[in-house]
Amino acid sequence: MTSADLPLEIDVQAVRTLRESDTPFLLLDCREPDEHAIASIPGAVLVPMAEIPERLDQLASHRTRRIIVHCHHGGRSLRVTRWLRAQGFAGAQNMAGGIDAWALEIDPSTPRY
Length: 113
Description:
Low-confidence stretches: none
Largest sheet: 5 strands, parallel
CATH class: Alpha Beta
Number of strands: 5
Strand order of the largest sheet: 1-5-4-2-3
Number of helices: 5
Order of helices and strands: EHEHEHEHEH
CATH topology: Oxidized Rhodanese, domain 1
Shape: globular
Helix content: 25-40%
CATH architecture: 3-Layer(aba) Sandwich
């Protein structure tokens, strides 16, 4: 997989479709633990943005797989996505709009903050 294979961003509708199709991917939540405690997407793995460089070895098994990164609104996760791609994670994509868009468009039971 190369970064040319996937666009930098993916919308929440496409993420829902991926989840429903059982397509394997890692949903990476790069928010802080206090944000994750308020609202989270089932199955997402929490690795706060500041910890990603030191925990990169935990993501190594996903280097050739798709990783969809999300945060609150999509700004931090876009930065993380770009950084991951620069580290050779060509399948990294940013979930545009973050968990807020997820709550608005996909799962209204997800708390908004």
